[in-house]
Specification:
Elements (H helix, E strand, L loop, with lengths): L1 H28 L5 E4 L1 H7 L1 H36 L6 H53 L4 E4 L13 H11 L2
Parallel strand pairs: 1-2
Helix pairs in contact: 2-5, 3-4, 4-5
Length: 176
């Protein structure tokens, strides 16, 4: 029986040695973990490409505000004109109806412009994020990153993990 116990112990040691050796080899075959951290909000705020997109958006916003102001000025002028008329006159009723119509149109125009601008803002943000995501995917492959996290998801990290400026430079150069 001692011989069987000895054989069992030797077999068990051999199996553990074999498993240990395989785990060491598999660990050696795994590349080192490489992590990057990107501040997407900084890219959205500071990159030249995002600033250019915001400038175009702001110009469109200014044009729409000017159109809205013109319509508002027309409503104010009609209101002032209506207040100067006698309520018993025939033109007062037509001016009142015209003012009500203009106010209704102004509100509808304002609501539509706000919806359009919100949609454009969302679309612009989605496009910027999609472009940045493509750049991040390229960097993951080309520089063998294990994964890249958004800075908002990281509680703390060393400065060496921060790659926002690199991503921003690539994004700006791609967007020219």
């Amino acid at each position: 029986m001692k011989r069987k116990d000895k054989w069992f112990v030797v077999s068990l040691v051999f199996v553990f040695a074999l498993m240990f050796g395989m785990s060491v080899v598999s660990l050696a075959a795994e590349p080192a973990l490489k992590i990057g951290v990107v501040d997407i909000s900084k890219i959205m705020k500071d990159s030249k490409a995002a600033k250019n997109a915001r400038t175009v958006f702001q110009k469109e916003l200014d044009v729409k505000k000017a159109t809205l102001k013109t319509k508002n000025d027309k409503v104010v002028a009609l209101d002032k004109e209506l207040k100067g008329l006698d309520q018993k006159s025939s033109s007062w009723k037509s001016k009142r109806d015209s003012l009500a119509k203009e106010i209704k149109e102004l509100r509808a125009m304002e609501n539509q412009m706000n919806q359009d601008l919100r949609k454009k803002d969302i679309d612009m943000t989605k496009k910027i994020i999609a472009d940045v995501q493509q750049i991040i995917n390229k960097i993951v492959k080309s520089e063998n990153y294990s994964f890249i996290l958004d800075k908002k998801a990281v509680l703390a990290s060393k400065d060496g993990f921060e790659i926002t400026d690199k991503i921003m430079k690539l994004y700006d150069s791609q967007s020219k």
